[in-house]
Write a structure and sequence with these properties.
The structure is a single chain. By secondary structure, this protein is an all-alpha fold. The chain has one domain. About 65% of the residues lie in helices and about 0% in strands. It is built from five helices and no strands. The chain has helices spanning about 20-35, 40-55, 65-80, 90-100, 105-130. The chain is globular and about 45 Å long.
Length: about 130
């Protein structure tokens, strides 16, 4: 996926590498670029919607993560991050984009819950690898 984002870099030991101010600025610029590209955001959210509907099925939040599912959840997380601000100035814009992509409040909730599950699983995997 050409517009996939990078959450961070990891050393060979699996520890997160420190980001330089340049790295942080570059990441912030990518988030602004994403937020300004409505077509790309809505397209990615529409893909996340299909995933949210399927997760709502029999296995639900306890299903194991497939590679494609992780990519979709990371994409969703990136979109949420791109629309985050301390003063909430992008909240309405994100809500409009959810609507354009066909996401319901329930779909958004499923995606947030599934993302939390993924992050917990990754934290557990990281902890196991360092013990």
């Amino acid at each position: 996926m050409a517009d996939q984002f990078e959450l961070g870099r990891f050393s060979e030991s699996g520890k997160p590498e420190e980001q330089t101010p340049f790295d942080k600025q570059e990441q912030q610029d990518k988030l602004v670029e994403l937020r300004n590209d409505e077509t790309r955001v809505v397209r990615r959210l529409a893909a996340c919607r299909r995933f949210a509907v399927s997760v709502g099925g029999s296995a639900g939040n306890y299903a194991t993560f497939g590679q494609n599912e992780e990519v979709l959840l990371r994409s969703f997380a990136e979109i949420v991050t791109a629309h985050s601000s301390a003063d909430g100035r992008y909240d309405q814009l994100l809500a409009q984009r959810y609507h354009k992509a066909g996401l319901t409040n329930a779909d958004v909730q499923v995606l947030h819950e599934r993302l939390q599950h993924l992050e917990i699983e990754e934290d557990d995997d990281y902890d196991e690898g360092n013990n």
